[in-house]
Design goal:
The structure holds two protein chains of two kinds. By secondary structure, chain A is mainly alpha-helical. Chain A is 71% helix and 6% strand. Chain B is flat and about 75 Å long. Helices cover 25% and strands 42% of the residues of chain B. Chain B has helices at 102-105, 108-114, 135-148, 213-223, 225-252; strands at residues 2-7, 30-34, 40-50, 55-61, 64-75, 78-91, 94-98, 127-129, 152-155, 160-163, 168-178, 184-194, 197-210. Classes of the chains: A mainly alpha, B alpha+beta.
Chain lengths: 303, 253
């Protein structure tokens, strides 16, 4: 069975992509991450042109994050005020990100940018996760995990505001900055940015872990919506047929993942995820290091 | 499912008259609609020529498009796509069909003059950015890549010639347009050769139109990008919302 993607202008096997959606969805449901940071590189490795993979994945995350946020809202695990501050910064960041993306697309370097960004972030985050999970298993010989408990510079900034649900009274500047940086990455990498947002919320903003995932998902709906619209309007790379296939697979997977995580929780599983993240990062990196079979190729997505 | 479209000769009876034209095909433009969700379209070409000792070459050239090549070079230990080569008028489809292997029909020089054959297909002047290589290196690669992708084809001995009524020979051939073929005008040129010499030439066109859902999506995305983006977001959100309702119901029951 063949299915034609109207924007990517290629025929794909929908069953394969549905399964991809389910697998990544299961992972994201199990670990509470969005999954975009795995989905986009996998789409690229499967032959979807990078520019289309990035824009369509943003479109996919709109639906999956909305679905996830509804669940967290019911459990009152969303700090909407904090989410709004983060997404104000995020909107600016995503506009800057689109400008960078489009100017590099013009110069023909967008594939390179996306590959390098993924290699860089997946490798670093994979290593950090691996370190953290091995540490929590007590394999690294540390007696107690040392967190960044002293953030005098965060506490000392002006423009303080109370965030009731998070139980915080902090300056608006750090959340704006966090939102801004994640917005840039979201536009360039086609991700919600949860994998960067969540550590930043815990370690820099010091939000309670109970509201972190819900708040991150809440602002991701808006950021990915804007990123999708900007990509569609400026370079016509959003393939919503692809996004819908992934969304259907992904939501089924997410439900499976939530159930699975109740049974399978443990540091060993986090080690598995970190190794997966690391390997995708390394595969992306190998594309830069290994000599290609053919040095001259048709640039994908060139019309 | 493969749809067949036949380009039929409008009237063979003309040919049984006194003056026999050297080659006759239906001169009218034909419209073909393809639905991208199916595998593609088989196109049948038919024509007539006086019987005996004639070889036929049919060349199909699809609408032109921009293609960019990239040249990867080693830079600081990394393989980066530094060189960019922009072509502005490359046929999106090329197929040469003949009744015999080309080198048995005529010689290279003749084909050069006529601009016939994959090697003689004009690719236009390319804009070479950040590369020291000559354009012919890129032309060669582009031809090979297009052949690998099945967009440039050579089908020797795929035209069959049969004798029809009287002194008329009927020729026919068929070729496949894949589902992702660009829409637009496909020009078809017909050549007849005898003893290595061109004796007649004619042409017609096929207008390929994409139909169906995918086409509507593509048109919307390109003509109304902002509306398309908004719709994509709303649709994705709607599906996400519906799913959360469905799963909540399932959990309760």
């Amino acid at each position: 069975m063949e299915f034609y993607l109207p924007i990517a202008e290629m025929s794909i096997n929908p069953v394969g992509f549905l399964i991809l959606g389910i697998v990544v969805g299961t992972l994201s449901g199990t670990f509470g991450v969005g999954g975009g940071f795995l989905m986009t590189p996998l789409l690229i490795l499967l032959g979807i042109p990078p520019a289309i993979a990035v824009a369509s994945e943003a479109n996919h995350i709109v639906g999956s994050s909305l679905s996830g946020t509804i669940g967290h809202l019911r459990r009152r695990a969303v700090d909407i005020r904090m989410g709004n501050v983060l997404l104000t910064g995020g909107v600016l960041g995503s506009i800057v990100g689109i400008l960078i993306f489009n100017s590099l697309k013009e110069a023909g370097f967008v594939d390179l940018l996306v590959t390098i960004a993924y290699f860089f972030f997946l490798t670093i985050i994979g290593l950090l996760m691996l370190y953290e999970s091995l540490d929590s298993m007590g394999l690294l010989g540390h007696k107690k995990r040392s967190r960044f408990y002293h953030h005098s510079w965060v506490m000392g900034l002006p423009l303080k505001v109370r965030f009731r649900r998070s139980g915080l009274y902090i300056s608006l500047i750090p959340p704006y900055l966090v939102g801004f940086v994640v917005g840039i990455l979201s536009a360039i990498m086609g991700v919600g940015g949860g994998f960067i947002m969540i550590p930043a919320m815990i370690y820099i903003l010091r939000m309670p872990t109970s509201v972190v995932v819900g708040t991150s998902l809440y602002q991701i709906i808006f950021i990915t919506s804007i990123v999708t619209i900007l990509h569609a309007a400026t370079n016509q790379t959003v393939d919503f047929v692809l996004a819908l296939i992934l969304l259907i697979g992904g939501t089924i997977g997410a439900q499976l993942g939530v159930r699975l995580s109740n049974k399978l929780k443990g540091p060993a599983l986090r080690v598995a995820l970190s190794i997966l993240v690391l390997s995708v990062g390394i595969v992306m990196g190998l594309e830069l290091i290994l000599e290609p079979d053919q040095s001259i190729t048709i640039l994908a997505g060139g019309h | 499912m493969i749809k067949k479209f036949i380009i039929i000769l409008s009237s063979i009876t003309i040919l049984s008259g006194q003056s026999l034209p050297e080659i006759f095909v239906d001169g009218e433009e034909r419209d073909i609609k393809i639905r991208p969700n199916i595998a593609g379209t088989e196109v049948v070409l038919l024509g007539a020529t006086p019987a005996g000792q004639r070889e036929i070459i049919i060349e199909v050239v699809g609408p032109r498009r921009n293609i960019t090549l990239q040249e990867k070079r080693r830079f600081l230990g990394l393989w980066l796509g530094l060189g960019k080569i922009n072509y502005h008028n490359v046929p999106s489809y090329y197929n040469i069909l003949s009744s015999k292997p080309l080198n048995e029909i005529s010689d290279r020089e003749t084909f050069n003059k006529l601009g016939l054959g994959l090697e003689n297909l004009p690719l236009g002047k390319a804009e070479i950015i950040n590369s020291d290589l000559k354009q012919r290196v890129f032309n060669k690669r582009l031809r090979t890549e297009m052949q690998n992708k099945g967009q440039f084809l050579e089908n020797e001995s795929s035209v069959t010639v049969r004798s029809g009524p009287g002194k008329v020979g009927l020729f026919s051939t068929e070729f496949f347009l894949p589902s992702n073929s660009l829409q637009g005008k496909y020009s078809v040129r017909y050549f007849t050769f005898r003893d290595g010499n061109l004796i007649s030439y004619t042409e017609n066109t096929i207008d390929l139109k994409q139909a169906g859902f995918s086409r509507v999506v593509w048109l919307t995305a390109n003509n109304f990008p902002l509306i398309y983006g908004l719709l994509a977001v709303i649709l994705s959100g709607l599906v996400g919302w519906l799913v959360s309702i469905i799963f909540r119901r399932l959990k309760i029951s």
